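Predict structure. Chain length: 140.
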Amino acid sequence: MHNWPQALLGGALIGLAAVLAMATVGRIAGISGIASGLLYGGDDHAWRASFVFGLLSAAPLYALFSGGSGLGLPQVGAATMLIAGVLVGLGTGLSAGCTSGHGVCGIARFSPRSLAATAIFMIAAILTVGMIRHVLAVQP
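Prediction complete.
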C-alpha cells in the first residue's frame, strides 16, 4: 500500500531543497547540473558536495529511523542498469537538464523550455513502460 503521508513529506522536502538552493546559492536544484559541476566545475564545490551528500545519505537515514529503506531489490541486472544510466546521461545532456531541474524547478518558474522537456520526459517514460510491459511482456 502506498504511504501518501511519506510521499507528501518527500515532495515537500524536494520543494524545500529547491527553494533553499535558489535562496542560498542562487542555483537551480537540477541534479545533473549539480553533479556535472561537482565533477567538472569551478570553485563552487562545497555546496554541490553537500547537496550530493544529502541525496546519498537520505535513504540510509530513512532506513535507520524507520526500520526499512523502502527500496526494493533491483528488478534488472547490472548490464541493464548500466545501459539505462548511460541513456539517462545522454538524455540529460541533450535536454540541457534532468527531471529535477526541468520538472521541479523549471515548471515552478513557468519556463517554456522546461515545460517542453518535461512533457517529452513523460511521453518517453510512458512509451518505454508500454513497450517493455506490453510489447516485450517483461513484468517486474
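Summary: The two ends are 17 Å apart (CA to CA).
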